[in-house]
Write a structure and sequence with these properties.
This protein has 413 residues and is of the alpha/beta class. Helices cover 31% and strands 20% of the residues. It has 13 helices and 16 strands. It is globular, with a radius of gyration of 22 Å.
């Protein structure tokens, strides 16, 4: 049975951990596979599967850490808009790994764009990739099947991690030190979801706005709290009841450490007490509500919004509809919106493709976010700007995203 994140306080990540890198390319690899949609505890099986042949535009990646997100489990269940093209399918939409091989067209393009005297213009040969400093990548698009030890993925679906401001600084041979790998493995889905919701719906001025959110212990919730702290925005966290007062206090203290200004019981009444009203009155107006639960919890969060506030729904853990109190909708003009990162990324990708034809200063780059030249559409676009800032904050230690390590072999019973 898959040991899902919801059973403990911390999200889970399938992590292989540090190990000696040899550069050997196996003919088969371990993977969490499902032959049909169903409950993850019944559908997922650990199998040895062939490593696909490397195409000219592909990259062979040794996976290091692959988060287990609720949406990943929904994909296995068949209840998510993203579906596998064929069965058997491999689970996982997000992760970080080390580049082992690059396809012929990828290698030729990179060798031309980033020549190095030390390796006769080719820093991406199998030998260089094996003996140089690790070249790490994260997934840039969903559907990569990251719950496996080795994966062949189109280069355009991967984003190379930066070690400096110049492109050459990410080449093999740069610094071998790579901190925060497990945090970086989570930057493509949860961190960017939190980032966009704080950026796109209301203006959150420094010390002039408050955000309320439910599911604060989720990966998106914890990322949003820390991003708000970085921006100087107050956060009210609605925390569901725990088995004991001590358990609630422990989680509440953790949220305060992350940056929450106020933690309240998510019971529909806690924010209406005299003490809570007094504390809320000392905070800036609540402009934005982030809803990952739905049902009564969403109504609670929306009821706290100030005039012209917005509640943004990104998840529905309660499996109940997201709603707004009638009074808030009528008298405070509170609005409801939804956000899905996959759709946002696809829209921005289409914008980038259009810019190649509209702007002569933009050069075509077939491999998208994989080592993009500074004059490429991706490097000039919003996807790159967001990912670069999220990575910078993680490397600066501003985002603390601990996980429970679970090996592939341990993920199923």
């Amino acid at each position: 049975m898959l040991r899902a994140a919801a059973r403990r306080a911390l999200p889970a990540a399938l992590a292989r951990g540090a190990r000696r890198y040899t550069g050997h390319v196996p003919s088969s690899t371990l993977a969490l596979v499902y032959d049909n949609h169903g409950h993850p505890s019944k559908a997922l099986r650990l199998r040895e599967v062939p490593v696909p042949p490397l195409g000219p535009d592909d990259v062979l990646v040794e996976m290091i850490a692959s988060p287990v997100n609720p949406a990943d489990l929904n994909v296995v269940e068949g209840t998510y808009p993203i579906r596998p093209g064929t069965f058997p399918a491999i689970g996982g939409n997000e992760g970080l790994g080390r580049v082992m091989r690059v396809g012929e067209r990828v290698r030729d393009a990179l060798a031309t764009r980033y020549p190095t005297e030390s390796n006769n213009g080719d820093a991406f040969s199998p030998e260089s990739l094996a003996r140089g400093a690790p070249l790490h990548v994260v997934t840039a698009e969903p559907g990569c099947g990251t719950w496996r030890a080795h994966a062949v993925i189109p280069a355009r679906k991967l984003r190379t991690l930066q070690r400096g401001t110049e492109p050459a600084s990410v080449l093999p041979g740069a610094s071998a030190h790579e901190p925060y790998l497990e945090e970086l493995a989570q930057m493509s889905v949860n961190v960017q979801t939190a980032w966009r919701m704080l950026e796109d719906f209301v203006r959150l001025d420094y010390e002039q706005a408050t955000v309320v959110l439910n599911a604060p212990m989720s990966a998106v919730g914890r990322a949003a709290i820390q991003l708000c702290k970085h921006r100087g925005v107050d956060v009210v966290a609605l925390l569901r009841p725990r088995p004991s007062h001590e358990a609630f206090a422990a989680d509440a203290n953790r949220l305060v450490e992350l940056g929450a200004s106020l933690v309240l019981h998510d019971d529909g009444a806690a924010h209406r007490t005299t003490e809570a009203r007094s504390r809320l009155a000392n905070l800036p107006p609540v402009r934005l509500a982030l809803n990952g639960v739905g049902g009564a919890s969403c109504v609670n969060a929306a009821s706290m919004l100030a005039r012209d506030g917005v509640v943004v729904t990104y998840g529905g853990m309660s499996k109940q509809p997201a709603g707004i109190p009638t009074g808030a909708a009528i008298f405070k003009n509170v609005a409801a919106r939804g956000f899905w990162l996959t759709r946002w990324l696809e829209d921005r990708r289409m914008e980038e493709e259009a810019s190649v034809h509209a702007d002569p200063s933009v050069v075509p780059w077939a491999h998208g976010s994989f080592m993009p030249p500074s004059d490429s559409a991706y490097a000039k676009g919003k996807r790159h700007a967001m990912a670069t800032e999220c990575e910078r904050l993680i490397r600066a230690g501003a985002l603390n995203l601990p996980t429970r390590r679970v090996g592939l072999e341990e993920a199923v019973d």
